[in-house]
Amino acid sequence: MSDDVLHFPDAANPVGLSDLAEFAPQLAQTFVSIASDIALIIDNDGVIQHVALGADAIPGSNAQWVGRPWIETASGGTRAKIGELLAEAQSAGVTRRREVFHATPAGHNVPISYSAIKLGPNGPVLAVGRDMGAVAAVQQRFLVAQREMEQDYWKLRQNESRYRQLFQVATDAVMIVDAEKLCIIEANRAAVELFCSPDTPGGTLVGQSATMGVLKAERVGVEELLVMARTSGRPGEIRVHAASGASQFSVLNATAIDMSATPFRSADKLLLLVRARASTPLSKQPSATHLADFVEQTPDAVTIADSSGRVLMANPAFIAMCQSRAHHHSASQATSVIGRSLAELLGDPDRSLDAILEEAKWQGLSEQRQATLGLDSASRFDVEISAALLAEGDQECIGLTLRRVEQRRDAPSTQFDELAATLSRLSGQVGQIPLPDLIRQISAIAERQLIETALGQAQNEHLLAAQILGITVEDLWLRLHNLDTGGMNLAMSAQRTLLN
Question: What pTM does this model have?
Answer without folding.
Answer: 0.52
